[in-house]
Write a structure and sequence with these properties.
The protein is mainly α. α1 runs parallel beside α9, α3 packs antiparallel against α8 and α5 runs antiparallel to α10.
Length: 296
């Protein structure tokens, strides 16, 4: 096994851990991994990532299902609607330059991450829906599926926020349910890509096997982490990867300028500092409310 292949397979474990733990992020890791480490062309990397993420998600849903963290009706309807959009997106991607696809991918990652990090919603005190309304599920599924097919994203970075923020599902349940959706849409998107892209099946099999191992590990960890921590970890992770992918699309003279990376590092530290400060302020405010309630 060559050094490049060994590194690719080793890092693929992180793809699986991300899927099992966060219900998304598999393709966010897999596409850059296959492009920048395995040195695959962008469209071949996207197609391969759909295979890897699809198989890994299908296996990764098992520990969540055993723990009761899957809404099957919501997931299956979302998945069927998403498959139609994903197939169309995979066919449409043939006519869009790879750089445009990756840039769009990165921008959507950043927008979604901000929504997850800034969200103040909590499952406490609210009724938890057993299943979401069919109309909303179908509409969201088609839109997210189209994105899946276009940019090779299994959709978790959109499905999880849709289920957690809009649908009101607890974060661990949103994670488990999203894996059902991701598996279905990834295979549909792959079918669209196979009409115009060939895959290195040996590399794909090795990366998939490593990612499956990671997904089982991530699934076992998911139920042990507090919901708020899980949601913010998801958002922070997507921000980092989104900035990386976006930076790679810049002209070489800009991308290799150390000032760019210093500025990005400072911006990331400021963002983390603001988030920590907001969380501390919110915690102090909640503590004062509890004390006041006890006095009444």
């Amino acid at each position: 096994m060559t050094g490049g292949l060994a590194l690719t397979v080793g890092l693929a474990v992180l793809v699986g851990i991300s899927l099992g733990l966060l219900g998304g992020g598999g393709s966010i890791l897999a596409v850059p991994l296959l492009v920048y480490v395995a040195d695959l062309p962008a469209k071949e990397a996207i197609a391969t990532s759909l295979l890897v993420v699809g198989v890994t998600s299908a296996v990764g849903v098992l520990p969540h299902a055993r723990a009761g963290r899957v809404r099957w009706r919501t997931g299956l309807i979302f998945g069927v609607a998403g498959m139609a959009g994903a197939y169309a997106g995979g066919r449409l991607a043939e006519f869009i330059p790879a750089g445009v696809l990756l840039t769009g991918f990165a921008l959507m990652m950043l927008a979604t991450a901000v929504a997850m990090i800034r969200s103040q919603r909590s499952a406490e005190g609210r009724p938890v829906p057993h299943e979401l309304p069919v109309g909303r599920v179908v509409l969201d599924g088609v839109v997210v599926g189209l994105v899946t097919g276009l940019v090779g994203a299994g959709g978790g970075f959109l499905v999880v926020p849709a289920l957690a923020l809009l649908g009101g599902l607890p974060m661990p349940v949103a994670v488990g349910t999203s894996l059902v959706v991701i598996a279905m849409k990834s295979f549909a998107g792959l079918a669209g890509y196979l009409s115009s892209v060939s895959i290195n099946w040996g590399l794909a099999a090795a990366v998939t096997a490593a990612a499956v191992v990671g997904s089982l590990l991530g699934g076992r960890l998911a139920g042990r982490i507090p919901e708020d921590v899980l949601r913010k970890a998801f958002g922070s992770f997507v921000v980092v990867m989104g900035v990386f992918v976006l930076a790679q699309q810049l002209p070489g003279v800009v991308r290799t300028n150390p000032l760019l990376w210093i500025a990005l590092g400072l911006a990331a530290m400021v963002a983390v500092g603001v988030t920590v400060w907001q969380n501390r302020r919110r915690g102090q405010h909640n503590a004062r409310e509890v004390v006041a309630a006890r006095r009444r």
